[in-house]
């Protein structure tokens, strides 16, 4: 079982001809709301890749919360770990104007997520824990500590980037970070000139935390290192037709698919490749959750991307 611990929200997308000035009213050209949140997105990616998934989070006692839980249930995700809060369901408002996007994030119920929502008996040597950083850092730290003591495999998508503590590294088996966040972390850790070399950053983080470190590189694929210093690189899937039209859900697709591969006992190098394919396919459709590929989609395109190469 993969336990995904983190944020769920209702994402609201507003297309506008301009951003309103103070006191100004601007009419939107379109409006859409879709279920989201990094934890919910990654849980959905994992279950579509054939894993058993339980999502732990909080929603409000409102229509948004009900819609989110119902959507996740229909997709086959266990929602027993999602509890109701007196605060409203978290929401992200995206203002799209002239090809640029501005986001306003309201954590709301997500700010009340607690590691106490995961009973100790749910964690064991066969469990996988997948985390992100859209909730309070202290709850993630407590959750990691509990999971590590129980022998579970721990995976964190360090996005958005925060301070990466030694304790967090110690309790992680897999760290997944995008190239921009990786370079921020490298500078904080004082890697100096190597803070622009993604391969060296991944290797340094893997050795520092004695973990597997994966850095995603957008159109260049990804690079990953084992605790022993063995490195792998995977390119990006060539996209047909219009190519990448929306990058929004790519990172979540990568993380959820990668976790599912580990759950299904794939090797590290094969997991890197499958996750890369899933991330690329997500970019060919608008949005996040609606764009996440199913297992059959991923397998159909696996042959179009070369296997991981050792570094």
User: Helix- and strand-based class?
Assistant: alpha/beta
Beta-strand percentage? 15-25%
H/E element string?
EEEHEHEEEEHEHEHHEEEHHHE
Straight-line N-to-C gap: 32 Å
Number of strands: 14
CATH class: Alpha Beta
* CATH topology (level 3) name: UDP-N-acetylmuramoyl-L-alanine:D-glutamate ligase
CATH architecture assignment: 3-Layer(aba) Sandwich
Structure annotation, total helices: 9
Could you name the CATH homologous superfamily? Ribokinase
What best-fitting shape do the alpha-carbon axes yield? globular
Radius of gyration: 19 Å
Which range best describes the helical content: under 10%, 10-25%, 25-40%, 40-55%, 55-70% or over 70%? 25-40%
Largest sheet: 10 strands, mixed
Q: What would you call the quaternary organization?
A: single chain
On the 0 to 100 scale, the average pLDDT is: 91
Strand order of the largest sheet: 5-4-1-8-9-10-11-12-13-14
Indicate how many domains the architecture comprises. 1
Low-pLDDT stretches are none
Task: Describe the fold and architecture.
The relative contact order is 0.14. The two termini are 32 Å apart. The protein contains 9 helices and 14 strands. It has helices at residues 38-48, 63-74, 137-150, 166-170, 179-188, 198-209, 250-263, 268-282, 295-301; strands at 2-5, 9-15, 30-36, 53-60, 78-85, 91-97, 100-106, 128-131, 153-157, 174-178, 212-216, 222-225, 231-234, 309-310. 32% of the residues lie in helices and 25% in strands. The strands form 2 sheets. The chain has a 10-stranded mixed sheet, with helices on both faces. It has one domain: Ribokinase (UDP-N-acetylmuramoyl-L-alanine:D-glutamate ligase), CATH 3.40.1190. It is an alpha/beta fold. Helix 1 (38-48) packs across helix 7 (250-263), helix 7 (250-263) runs antiparallel to helix 8 and helix 8 crosses helix 9 (295-301).
